[in-house]
Design a protein that fits this description.
seven-stranded mixed beta sheet; alpha/beta; 17 strands; 34% helix; globular
Length: 517
């Protein structure tokens, strides 16, 4: 690995987060980690010792040499909160650990390690926790005392009052009972160390989110304001950059899932937004999400759904078709024909999954966003010199003979998928396909934002949502927009994913005078 000055400063500074460092290709013989360490990822998370226990494990000055490197992971089952009690650890983690180092000092406040990567010379926070929380963030507008409960994935809650906001550390995914208890403890702990006594609660609009249901159960007569998921993402970027909301921005909110105002699963959104509201300028064209979470865990299902929506044959030589067992393929075909359990989605995250499987990169996801992470890694391995890109078809109601009025632009990925199929049949490798797809998405962002500027005289773009944790995509979008005179807002203080959602919820819902007390 080669360190930039910014990465070195993060590793050796006072916060000591985990820093995602790009693997060298090829790795030098004898000095690379085992293949089982973060397989398929373009990065490795690296940190330096920051506790006395770390120093003892690695060896104090004068001690015999300790190990030069230790592979570490957090003490929890994936998706659950970290275990902080020795007895609980001995029970819940017994199947994961062979030995135990216990301590006689109880942990009162659990806190994960923060995770940061450097993108274009600036920090991009993946997980905001130890070292950053509970330090307050300044707000560009005053807010009434309020609690924002965040989302259900990568949950983080947020207290705010006046011009300060306090975000909790990373809590986890709310589909686990232990995480829900951890959420309640995090809220109580934040209230114990801040002067905020919430008189309003803010939550996502998803009717089934556990965080939103918790807010409704615990309102105790206080108003609960529901904030649309992608509006909150854009508002978080605006607040982080100190915008007072007097002028709207063009918000590009790309993620895996968020409840849309029409009941669909949104996730490939172009918004004209301020803190008071938003207009949906455009979105990725809807495709069926067959089986909900089944499509998330098996990206080949998403690939087949996209191919069918694009009118492309499920040819046996395509990697995603070959990856789908024949019996499942027959059931999936009938499911799509009859529209059974197929909520429509405009998710850019799911399109990344589909392309990852179509290109033969990843067919099954063992962790969140694995297919997209491995597609990013493939793009980074693409040979230099190729400048080709696929192209989305942009369906514009104002120019395509459709109805005049507020109908949004639709970005149809069918030509992208057709181009990938042609490349596969021509023997093009997955690395070039991945790179060309990334360039296609960046060009789509520039094209839609240029139309937005032309029609609404807005030249500030906020890039938010978990897809923008993808550093080559974020860089390509910012580079193209910046070269065309746009001011580009990217996250540096809170994560672009759902770990920053609560900040946007807070500012949208709790601005002084925005709603009756």
């Amino acid at each position: 690995m080669r360190l930039t000055d910014e990465e070195r400063a993060l590793l050796t500074g006072t916060v000591r987060p985990i820093v995602l460092l790009r693997r060298l290709t090829p790795a030098r013989a004898g000095r690379r980690p085992a293949d089982a360490v973060a397989p398929g990822s373009p990065d490795l998370g690296v940190m330096l010792p920051y506790t006395p226990v770390h120093q003892l494990l690695l060896g104090l000055p004068g001690d015999p040499d300790g190990p030069r490197l230790i592979v570490m992971t957090s003490g929890n089952v994936s998706g659950e909160p970290i275990v902080t009690d020795d007895e609980e650890a001995l029970e819940r983690l017994a199947h994961l650990a062979d030995a135990w180092l216990t301590h006689d000092r109880p942990i009162h406040v659990p806190c994960d390690d923060s995770v940061v990567r450097v993108c274009d010379g600036r920090p991009l926070i993946v997980r905001r926790a130890r070292g950053y929380t509970p330090l307050p963030l300044p707000l560009p507008v005053p807010v009434r005392p309020a609690l924002a409960v965040g989302g259900d994935l990568k949950n983080v809650c947020c207290l705010g009052e006046g011009r300060r906001a306090w975000l909790s550390a990373h809590i986890g995914d709310m589909d686990d009972l232990a995480t829900q208890h951890a959420f309640e403890r995090a809220v109580a702990q934040l209230e114990s160390i801040t002067p905020v006594r919430p008189r309003l609660l803010a939550a996502d609009r998803h009717p089934a989110y556990r965080s939103a249901r918790w807010a409704a159960r615990n309102a105790a007569g206080r108003p609960v304001v529901r904030v649309q998921h992608h509006h909150a993402h854009v508002a978080a970027a605006m607040a982080e950059h100190g915008l007072d909301g007097s002028r709207p921005v063009l918000g590009v909110a790309f993620d895996g899932t968020g409840y849309g105002d029409d009941g669909a699963v949104w996730g490939g959104e172009f918004l004209l937004a301020d803190y008071d509201g938003f207009t949906r300028l455009g979105h990725l064209a809807y495709v069926p999400l067959p089986g909900g979470d089944a499509a998330v865990h098996r990206p080949y299902r998403m690939a087949l759904a996209h191919l069918r929506a694009a009118g492309l044959e499920w040819s046996a030589e395509l990697p995603c078709v070959a990856a789908c067992p024949p019996d499942e393929r027959r059931v999936l075909e009938r499911q799509l024909e009859r529209d059974l359990n197929c909520v429509p989605t405009s998710s850019m995250g799911r399109l990344f999954d589909a392309v990852s499987s179509l290109a033969g990169v990843c067919h099954r996801s063992g962790y969140e966003a694995q297919a997209a992470v491995e597609l990013e890694a493939a793009a980074l391995r693409a040979p230099a010199g190729d400048a080709c890109a696929y192209a989305f078809a942009l369906r514009d109601p104002e120019t395509d003979g459709g109805p005049e009025g507020p109908d949004p632009l639709r970005a149809d990925p069918a030509p992208v998928l057709a181009g990938i199929v042609d490349d596969l049949r021509a023997g093009t490798g997955p690395e070039l396909i991945a790179a060309r797809f990334h360039r296609a998405v960046a060009r789509l962002v520039h094209r839609v934002c240029a139309l937005g500027r032309e029609r609404h005289q807005v030249d500030t773009v906020a890039l938010s949502g978990g897809v923008f944790l993808n550093s080559p995509l974020s860089s390509a979008c910012a580079r193209a927009l910046g070269a065309d005179g746009f001011t580009v807002l990217r996250h540096h203080l809170v994560p672009p994913g759902d770990g920053g959602l609560a900040l946007g919820q807070l500012v949208v819902a709790a601005r002084a005078g925005a709603a009756p007390d």
